[in-house]
Amino acid sequence: MQVISTILNIAQGALQANQMAMQTISHNIANVNTPGYTRQKAVLEPQSSYTLESLKFGLGVKVDSIVQFFDAFTTRTIHQNTSSLKEYEAKASVLSYVESLWSESGGSSLAQALNEFWNAWQGVANNPAGMTERAALLEKSKILTQQFNSLSNELDGIKRNMNTNLQLGMEEFNRITRGIADLNERILAAESSQAAANDLRDQRNRLLGELSGWIDLTYLEDRNGMIHVQTSAGILLVDGNRSWDLNIQGNSIQRDGVPSDVSDRLTGGKLGAWLDIRDEIIPQYAANLDELAGSLIQQVNSLHTAGFTLSGATGISFFRDFPTAPALPNATDFKGAAAYLSLSSDVLGHPENIAAGGVSGAPGDNENSLNIAALQTDRTVTIRKWTIEDRGRTLTSTLETGTLDDYYRSLIGEMGILSEAMNEKQDFVQSLLTRLEEVRDSVSGVNLDEELAEMMKFQHAYEAASKIIAVVDEMLRSLMELR
C-alpha cells in the first residue's frame, strides 16, 4: 500500500507540475503582443529521492522556478541606442522646420528678397530720377526687412518652444523615475521569498526603455534586485526606492529643487536634443543671421550716407542705424540686428530721399546707386561667422571675406549638411535598433508556434500522469477485491 500511495503522490505532483507549466505557457501566449514582455518558462526538476532496501526511488517532479529568457546585454544596448535615436529624431525634426523657414524653393525666401533688393537698386541706377523705381526699391526693402524680422522671430519662437517641450518632457520624465523607484520597492518585497518577480521586472525594464528615450543614462542592479539609475554624466535619478525629480526654472534645470543648473550634464535623448537646440543650434543660426543683417545695415548705410538725394541732401541713412555696430563687429555688436532691421524714417515713405546720386548731386546722377548695387558682387566684405558650443558657454568666430550673398549661401549649406547628417544618423540607428530588437526577440520574445508545441508536450505529460492515477486506481480496486 505504501508503494501505491507513493505512486499516487508522484502522479499528483506530475499533474500539478504540468498544470503550472501549462499556466506559464498560457501566460506567454496571452502576452504575445504585450510591449516589453519577456518569455517565461517553468523549470522542472526531480523531487528528492528516498532509499528503500538500498535502492534509490524517485518521488516525481516539481516546478523549481519560473525563469525569464532575458537578454540583459542586448537590452542594455537597445536602451543606449534608443537614447541616440530619440536625440537624432528630435534634432532632425527641428532642423527640417528651420530649413523650411530658409527654403529657397518657395516664393518668399530671404535669398529671393536679397536678390530683388539688389535688383531694385540696379533699377534705380538705370533711372535715378524715376519715382516708380524708387518706390519699388522701398517696397522690396520692406519685404527684405520683414524677412529678416520674421526669421529672427521664428528662431526665438523655436527657443521658447524648446523650453515648453522641456517643461512637459520633465513631467513625463519624473513620472517614469518615480515609477522605477516604486517598482524597485515592489520587486524587493515580492522577491523576499526567493521567487523572481518576472512581470514586475518586465514593467520596470519597459520604464527603463522609456527613460532612455529621454536622456542618455546608465544603470546597475544590486544584489537585492533593485536598480540604480543615473545620467551618463553621473546625476543620480533613482536609488532603490527613492527618486529625484528634474524641473526647469527659466533656462536652468534643477535636480530636486536644488538651485544649481545641471543642464550641461544632461545629454542624449529628447531632453539632451532640446537643450542642444535651445542653447547651441538655434543661437548659432540667430547669431549668424544677426551678423548678416548687421553687415547689411553697415555696408548699405556707409554708402548711402555718402550719397545725395534728389534735393541734394546727404548724410541720410537708408536703414535704421544699428546702435552699437562699429567698423569691426565682435561677439555682441550685431546681436538682435535681424529683429531690429527696418528702413530709416528718412526714406520710409519718402522715395525722393533715396541717395542715388554721387558727388555731383545732379538728378540724373546714379553713381551711389551703382555703388550700392555693386555690393551684391563685392567679394571684399568681411563678416564674422559664429560657432556656439558647450550649451552656449563656448563662442568662437572666424572672419570670412566674400559677398553678403555668399555668406547667406554658406549658412544655408551648413544647415543642409547638419540636417542631412541628423537624418542619416537617425536612419542608421533605427536600422541598428531593428536588428538588435530582432536579436532580443529571438531570445526573449514569444513565438506562438514554439509555445503551442510546448503546450502539446505538457498536455501529453498531463494525460500520462492522469493515466497513472487511473492505473493505480485499478490496482487499488484489485487489492480490495483480494480482501
Describe the structure.
By secondary structure, the protein is α+β, with helices and mostly antiparallel strands. Among the domains are: 2-69 and 445-482, no CATH class; 105-154 and 276-430, no CATH class. The chain is built from ten helices and twelve strands. The protein has helices at residues 2-30, 72-102, 110-126, 131-190, 198-212, 269-304, 337-340, 367-373, 404-444, 448-482; strands at residues 40-46, 50-52, 55-57, 61-68, 217-221, 227-231, 236-239, 242-243, 246-249, 252-255, 382-389, 394-401. Strands 5-6-7-8 form a four-stranded antiparallel β-sheet, with helices on one face. It has a two-stranded antiparallel ribbon with strand order 1-4. Helix 2 (72-102) runs antiparallel to helix 4 (131-190) and helix 2 packs parallel to helix 5 (198-212). The two termini are 13 Å apart. Mean pLDDT is 91; it is low at 325-331.
Summarize the structure.
The protein has 483 residues and is α+β, with helices and mostly antiparallel strands. Helix content is 57%, strand content 13%.
The average pLDDT score comes to 91
Strand order, sheet with most strands: 5-6-7-8
Order of helices and strands: HEEEEHHHHEEEEEEHHHEEHH
Count the helices. How many? 10
Low-confidence stretches: 325-331
- The helical percent reads 55-70%
Structural class: alpha+beta
Q: What value does the Rg take, in angstroms?
A: 37 Å
Note the beta-strand portion.
5-15%
Biggest sheet overview: 4 strands, antiparallel
Overall geometry:
rod-shaped
Give the CA-CA distance, first to last residue. 13 Å
Number of strands: 12
